[in-house]
Amino acid sequence: SNKVFVTRQPNWPQIFSGETITLTCEVQGGETTKWMYEWRRSGTVIQRTNSKDWTFRVSKFSSGDYMCQCRKTDDWYSSTQCSEAITLSVSGESCLLSIDMLN
């Protein structure tokens, strides 16, 4: 079965509440297949996307382990294994963000 990898941008160890992050789900050897991407946080499906990229604003509730699992759009029962987890640890708002919001 196809192996699945999740990467993140930006890939800083620390991310602050209010910042935007993009998680990307790559299916090894599945480039020509149309996929539906299921995103799980701590085991629960929280988002489905037609694109391998999922961009969202991080909040203090976003901390957790994220995994991606893909299903073929023409065969819902044909799914990949889950990716390895990528862990987000969200800190309080950064000083920079607060300054940006004032301007």
UniProtKB/TrEMBL annotation:
Q: Which UniProt keywords apply?
A: Disulfide bond, Signal
Domain Ig-like, which positions? Answer: 18-89
PANTHER family according to UniProt? FC RECEPTOR-LIKE PROTEIN 4, IMMUNOGLOBULIN FC RECEPTOR
Q: Which InterPro entries match?
A: Ig-like_dom, Ig-like_dom_sf, Ig-like_fold, Ig_Fc_receptor
Keyword NADP in annotation: no
Q: Which PROSITE patterns match?
A: IG_LIKE (PS50835)
Protein known as: Ig-like domain-containing protein
Q: Sorted alphabetically, which SUPFAM superfamilies does this protein's record hold?
A: Immunoglobulin
